[in-house]
């Protein structure tokens, strides 16, 4: 990638060895574009260096918009286009945007809530759920001061206004009972929630479905209903991780089960077409990730599900990475091996209670969490799964998993400085350029009612990828 972007600014052009009689030279531009869109980026770079005409073609933002759709997905590209206002309907500089996404080195933070305002705000909490669905933020449950659970649902419409103070609306229709440490994912226009712990320490294994509806007359409504999963369900738990892998499947892993024991099992929920029922089954593979809680699962289209971090059975805080490969034949866990000592500032990577969010470019943005001494973090890391080699490329020396290099990068943070936090929640909008972060446990002033200075946070802030071009700032 570096070679290509050096070539982009070069004033010299490689001499062409392609004769005028070569069939490829005579192809129409549309046909050439079709061919170029089938090439991997490295091959596209080589093609661009053969002659002036091909260099011009490969610099076309029309071509690069199509490449971005291929690499990032149409949902992200369309959301990015709708959220950026350009003058006179100018074409976005897609090649430059692609470059900046691939070389991302910083994010900026912006405050989106004011605890002193007169607006209704969700109470401070941690171990809740926060999701972006139907252009809305949806917040449910969590734990708060005094070890109490919460059973409230809050909704805030985002639209295209990304930096204003948001107006939260409390919803009181068909909600699940109070809990924290539950997991909630988005599948299409639906929310799917599983498990959690109540303030009596009871673990739960119920499954709920929520639906947000926007109406001009009624405003925002959200209804929860208990999902019929028949007789089979995962054992009760909290502090587990979850994600979806397609338009009808939920995956959960680990968590804290009965008697406080950490779990290492993986379960799959297949939902019916109308989301009225579902079927749970356990996925048993060898190897598989060790038992843990407070970790993350994130699905990356075309790659699989990435598991990172958490707290292990021995109360140790982990930094291992696992990939659940998804294919039509099977689902299989593979550990991704890397050397923590080879990563600049890598000593801060092990964590529990962090967030891991899929961002533009198909990478994970890791934020916050805490280490084994309960020191909370405010750092941002990118995990680039494109650096993970294919299973076929693994060496016999690494038979335990796949060896990956250069997949971690620490980002600089600009703008607003939020508190260090853990067990917060984060979600991205459809573009993958903007993340919303709410709540968590933060370090506070030591008071008699606050053991070890712990306090719960009720702040909402926005994290934006720092992307700049000549005509837009994302």
Automatic annotation (TrEMBL):
Q: By its UniProt entry, which Pfam families does this protein fall under?
A: F-box-like, Kelch_KLHDC2_KLHL20_DRC7
**PANTHER family xref list:** BACTERIOOPSIN TRANSCRIPTIONAL ACTIVATOR
What's this protein's name?
A: F-box domain-containing protein
Q: Which Gene3D superfamilies match?
A: 1.20.1280.50, Kelch-type beta propeller
Q: Which domain of life is it from?
A: Eukaryota
Cited InterPro entries: F-box-like_dom_sf (IPR036047), F-box_dom (IPR001810), Gal_Oxase/kelch_b-propeller (IPR011043), Kelch-typ_b-propeller (IPR015915)
Domain F-box, first and last residues per copy: 21-67
Instruction: Specify whether Signal is a keyword of the entry.
Output: no
This chain's source organism reads: Populus trichocarpa (Western balsam poplar)
Record keywords, A-Z: Kelch repeat
